[in-house]
Design brief:
heterodimer; A: 508 residues; mainly alpha; two-stranded antiparallel ribbon; 2 strands; B: 625 residues; 4 domains; two-stranded antiparallel sheet; globular
């Protein structure tokens, strides 16, 4: 495969956004179709990445490198490996669906909204494909602006508060990361004589112990906020509740994965010793996140908040898996990033469908929906089951691999004794709580008699809503039943990453 | 054989998909898809059973499944005598219950949905039995749990039904928490999850490790098979339609725990301790549930506690190493308990939905077939010779005694006596004496249609002859045990000390007959006072009526604290503390910034520049040190 395929995928949405700017006002339908088709085209092009990807190779593929600011060692360097491939595909897959889902929800400034969504997609894709830290940081920050606008302009009543909280919180983390990037740049330059932001080159450098810890913390904080890990999660429920459905889908579906991706792409290979040093703390926060997120979800009266807190729990699993440094844990973590994007994205879509009909998200307002809107209820059930990790659906594959990885990690630490097994045991307990909060929520929404007359005449899913949900459903079942095409893509890169970390950290 | 094996799950899966996708249009004709698909699956099972009878076995992979690094699993099937027997029970009893459901569910608005779930269950249960490794077993273990959840809550508009479904799922998840950990530990310890490899390598495990793994797996078995302390979901599961209670919550799914322990008996034997735990949990549950069964007033709940108790017998059998006897009891129990549930369903159908024994009575002349078949089932459960239950239960009792566990044997014998009491009581209260239902209900009493009574007849026949046909003990074990001998090697018939086999047999019969007589004395020799039956007469009766207050205890110990903790986390801690700090920092900055307002130029470029400069200064500071 030749040609700048990665650039094409990444900038196609941005190009679409630019063209949209030329559209006349008031042609909402045209704008919607155009934006959707651009995003769909980006997905189609990204499929070429999947087709051309050589799963046997561990190194970066589809690499593009252009000299940009050579005097500072900055280059336009793109490439993907098995770790980023699935995240790129997840982004291009969810974006057109998110756009399609907003056709009735967003009536105001449709053009600007569509432009923001497309620019957001480019920003996120850029994060996943950049192999130059400077370029990465630009995408990382650039993507904040459209997201800020989506929450702040098209959001709910408290949108300004939520948008500002979102941007200030994440900015705090990223500024520290910028410090870290620059420090690494200067340190590497001083040590080797080459001043560069190029990730593959920097990844060969081992920073001295003391500064590695500080660098790790600077990066890790930015990622922990983005994930978000407990206790840095409080921006998430606010942002989700206020964001329009399409924004929530992208936020939960892919934006949070920038944090977990960051851990995997930067923290582990750049600062392996420090990463290993902090494993107990990361595990502690992950476990608290898993259990605490589930508990807090349980008692939320608002559907969107419930789903938002469940993300804290699910992403706790992901981070746990990544830091087990076992093939099972990391492959499971990557698959779980995809799964969470599909399941939670779909949950937000479903909540959005309810909100469009009833203009409320309070669980107490619903009940007995199965009677009124059976098709919706069936899909809602399948997706809830996927989210709680029912075998046969996607969530189980990731969760199980992560837990196996945690178990393998614990068994590899004979010195820690039985205490280490607390990690897989406590993490597994999260699976029980997931069943509790999801089934309870489902029961209150869909089972029972119709208690609220307003729910009686609700229309069931429309053709457009089917079109949004069925593709997600297909992948939910596909990954659950036959995950090989997905896990197989990541394995070589994951093995190489583990080998690299172990070699740099001096363990075998 | 390989194609035939895969056809067994294929047909019910096809039926599920057809009814799920087109049920809206198929509607009241859904059984024309569901019943034949199950029937074909039964025929394929018969063919496989015959091949296995000729000594063939089968293992095969369908496709690779979850894999990462050294962790490699595939969707694997294994057919040996044990799975062949289970397949026959699942698809055979399943078929009869499908047929019965055509009558029982007639006219229900969710008719197609019902058959979709029922086919999905048969598919999942068949796959559970066919599974060739622990992960596939685990997957379908959860899948049958899902079907159970869906079918318990089938009448979702009733809160009690939806609650019961949720409870079943969550209690099972608690057990599966252990099961899942056990599977992971097994992989970490042995590097494989395939049955054949695991059982070949069990000898390399230390007994302590084997104990931990076996007990973790057993936690899952306790959940699925409703054993102490995870039994609470099964009585509530009676909220589901009665054919579901018969198929899932009596004949098949709940026996998966016994299947799991029997299947991995090599592992449990390696531990030793784990087998003891299995035996005692089974024995205690058998007695515990039987006592509750004495006092229940809902006909289905009597049968539910009976099921818990009978599953206890099977675990006791497995625990003392009498695997073939336990599986035999599993088979006969599937016959007579499905029969009893379907009979109860026929009664409920005839009474327009009434399940309360206090409002029954005198049904015998009005529902002859149901009465006769229910009687056969009750006698089978009570263990009266020569019905199947007599042979299978007695073998477990004898095995417990000969395994050197006289106390366990005594426990089970007492349980057998109580079993005879409660099931005779239920029979008498429902079918004999004077009618206690309202005039209105009494006028409409009718025998069920043929589509329902035919399955009753077949199950009654099986209950009557299965024991004599394949369960008569000999010097070389029963015919049934000989069939299973490739999986469970026949024990050497050693000379037993203590009571002889014949004495034990006589004692069992005495216990059963005494139980029947006692029930007759209390409930049938003089007219019963319906009012008095459900009212607590003394503290012991109250304890039994309230099921030992276990639900209340769990509510107090787990449910309420969890809700309180979650509420505290969500409100006080998350919003107050964690977010309070975040917003506090925000306010601090705003306050500080008020003083710094002069610096605010309002130009984004200036801010960006300041950010960058600040970062550079910090870096320069670190580098210059």
């Amino acid at each position: 495969m030749t040609g700048p395929l990665l650039s094409a995928v990444t900038f196609l949405p941005a190009l679409g956004a630019l063209l949209l700017a030329l559209f006349p006002r008031g042609r909402a339908a045209l704008v919607r179709w155009f934006a959707f088709l651009v995003a769909a085209a980006a997905f189609a092009v990204s499929l070429l990445l999947y087709v051309g990807f050589d799963a046997a190779r561990a190194d970066y593929q589809f690499e593009e490198r252009l000299s940009w600011m050579p005097s500072f060692g900055i280059s336009y360097h793109l490439g993907i490996d098995g770790i980023s491939l699935l995240l790129v595909l997840l982004t291009t897959f969810l974006s057109p669906l998110a756009l399609l889902s907003s056709w009735r929800a967003v009536e105001d400034r449709v053009k600007e909204f569509s432009m923001s969504m497309l620019l957001l997609e480019t920003g996120i894709l850029g994060v996943f494909v950049s192999l130059d830290l400077f370029l990465f940081y630009i995408f990382w920050e650039a993507m904040l602006i459209p997201m800020y606008l989506i929450i702040g302009v098209w959001g709910g009543p408290a949108r300004i508060y939520a948008a500002i909280k979102f941007i200030l919180y994440t900015l705090t983390g990223s500024v520290l990361m910028l410090v870290g990037i620059l420090a690494l740049y200067f340190q590497h330059g001083a040590a080797t004589g080459t001043y560069t932001f190029d990730l593959p080159i920097l990844a060969r450098y081992v920073a001295p112990g003391g500064s590695q810890v500080w660098l790790f913390l600077a990066f890790a904080l930015a990622f922990a906020i983005k994930v978000p890990m407990f206790p840095f999660h409080t921006w998430l429920p606010d942002a989700h509740v206020e964001a329009p459905t399409a924004g929530s889908v992208i936020l939960a579906g892919v934006l949070l994965k920038m944090g977990t991706y960051g851990f995997l792409r930067f923290c582990l290979p750049l600062f392996p010793q420090a990463s290993l040093t902090f494993v107990p703390w990361i595990f502690l926060l992950s476990l608290v996140g898993i259990v605490y997120g589930a508990w807090v979800s349980m008692v939320q009266p608002d559907l969107k908040k419930l789903v938002a807190y469940s993300s804290v729990s699910h992403l706790g699993f992901v981070v746990l898996g990544l830091f087990t440094l076992t093939p099972q844990g990391i492959v499971g973590g990557i698959i779980q990033m995809v799964n969470h994007g599909l399941s939670t994205g779909a949950l937000f879509l479903l909540v959005g469908i309810l909100y469009e009909r009833r203009h409320t998200r309070l669980i107490a307002e619903f009940g007995g929906l199965w009677k009124a809107i059976p098709a919706f209820s069936v899909l809602f059930m399948i997706i809830s089951l996927s989210s709680l990790g029912l075998p046969g659906l996607n969530g189980f594959v990731g969760e199980f691999l992560i837990l196996v990885g945690a178990f393998a990690w614990a068994s590899g630490l004979p010195a820690a004794g039985p205490l280490a097994y607390l990690v897989p045991v406590l993490a597994t307990s999260g699976v029980i709580f997931a069943a509790v909060y999801l089934l309870w929520m489902y029961q209150r929404v869909c089972f029972g008699e119709i208690t609220n007359e307003a729910n009686r005449g609700l229309p069931d899913l429309t053709g457009r809503e089917w079109a949004v949900l069925v593709p997600v459903l297909i992948f939910i079942v596909w990954i659950g039943v036959y995950p090989r095409p997905f896990t197989g893509m990541t394995e070589a890169s994951v093995q190489a990453l583990i080998a690299q970390v172990q070699a740099k950290a001096g363990i075998h | 054989m390989s194609t035939t094996v895969w056809l067994i799950p294929f047909f019910p899966l096809l039926g599920t998909l057809l009814n799920a996708l087109f049920g809206r249009w198929i509607g009241r004709h859904a059984h024309w898809i569901a019943v034949p698909s199950n029937g074909l699956s039964f025929l394929a099972s018969c063919a496989v059973f015959l091949s296995v009878g000729r000594g063939e076995t089968f293992t095969g992979d369908l496709f690779p499944w979850i894999q990462a690094g050294a962790f490699k699993t595939a969707v694997t099937a294994l057919v040996d005598p044990l799975s062949a027997v289970m397949l026959l029970v699942v698809t055979g009893v399943g078929f009869l219950i499908h047929v019965y459901s055509v009558g029982y569910m007639h006219g229900d608005p969710g008719y197609a949905r019902f058959f979709t779930y029922l086919n999905l269950f048969v598919f999942s249960m068949v796959m559970l039995v066919l599974a060739g490794n622990f992960l596939v077993l685990y997957v379908f273990w959860e899948a049958v749990g899902l079907c159970s959840y869906l079918l318990i809550g089938f009448w979702y508009q009733r809160k009690a039904a939806a609650d019961a479904g949720k409870k079943a799922f969550i209690v099972n998840r608690v057990g599966d928490f252990g099961f899942g950990l056990g599977v992971m530990y097994l992989w970490v310890a042995l590097g494989t999850l395939d049955y054949s490899e695991v059982f070949a390598k069990v000898g390399t495990l230390s007994p302590e490790t084997a104990t931990v793994i076996a007990l973790l797996l057993f936690a899952g078995a306790c959940g699925k098979s409703a054993q102490l302390p995870l039994h609470t979901w099964l009585p509530d599961a009676m909220e589901g339609p009665t054919p579901v209670s018969a198929l899932i919550h009596a004949a098949t799914m709940v026996t998966a725990g016994i299947y799991l322990v029997a299947r991995s008996h090599v592992l449990f034997e390696r531990s030793g301790v784990a087998l003891d735990v299995v035996a005692w949990v089974g024995g205690l549950t058998a007695l515990f549930a039987a006592t509750i069964g004495l006092a229940q007033t809902d006909i289905k709940r009597v049968l539910a506690y009976s099921t818990i108790s009978q599953l206890g017998y099977m675990f006791a059998g497995v625990g003392v190493g009498a695997y073939a006897a336990a599986i035999f009891h599993l088979v006969t129990h599937a016959f007579f308990k499905a029969l009893l549930f379907l009979g109860a369903g026929s009664v409920i159908h005839g009474l327009g939905g009434e399940q309360d024994l206090r409002k029954m009575g005198g049904l015998a002349p009005r529902m002859v077939t149901t009465t006769v078949t229910f009687f056969v089932g009750a006698a089978g459960l009570a263990g009266l010779p020569p019905l199947a239950g007599f042979f299978s239960k007695d073998e477990i009792l004898a095995s417990a005694y000969h395994a050197g566990r006289p106390w366990l044997w005594a426990l089970l014998l007492l349980g057998a006596f109580l079993t005879a009491v409660y099931i005779s009581r239920a029979f008498i209260l429902a079918f004999r004496g004077a009618p206690r239902m309202s005039q209105e209900v009494a006028r409409h009493i009718h025998e069920s249609p043929r589509v329902m009574t035919a399955p009753l007849g077949i199950l009654a026949l099986l209950t009557a002859v299965a024991g004599v046909a394949i369960g008569i003990p000999s010097a070389h074990g029963t015919a049934f045990a000989r069939f299973l001998s490739p999986v469970f090697p026949l024990a050497e018939e050693a000379g037993h000390a203590g009571l002889s086999a014949l004495t034990l047999l006589v004692l069992s019969v005495i216990a059963a007959v005494a139980g029947v007589l006692l029930a007759w004395l209390i409930y049938d020799s003089r007219p019963v006072n319906a009012e008095a039956i459900g009212r607590p007469r003394n503290w012991l009766h109250a304890l039994l009526l309230r099921k030992y207050y276990v639900d209340e205890l769990y509510d107090f110990l787990f449910v309420r604290p969890l809700v309180r903790v979650a509420g505290f986390c969500a409100r006080a801690f998350d919003l107050g503390f964690v977010d309070g700090i975040v917003n506090g920092v925000g306010r601090l900055v705003v306050g500080w910034a008020g003083a710094m307002r002069l610096v605010q130029t309002g130009y984004v470029m200036n801010y960006a520049l300041a950010t960058l400069l600040g970062a550079v200064v910090i870096v320069a500071f670190f580098l210059s040190r």
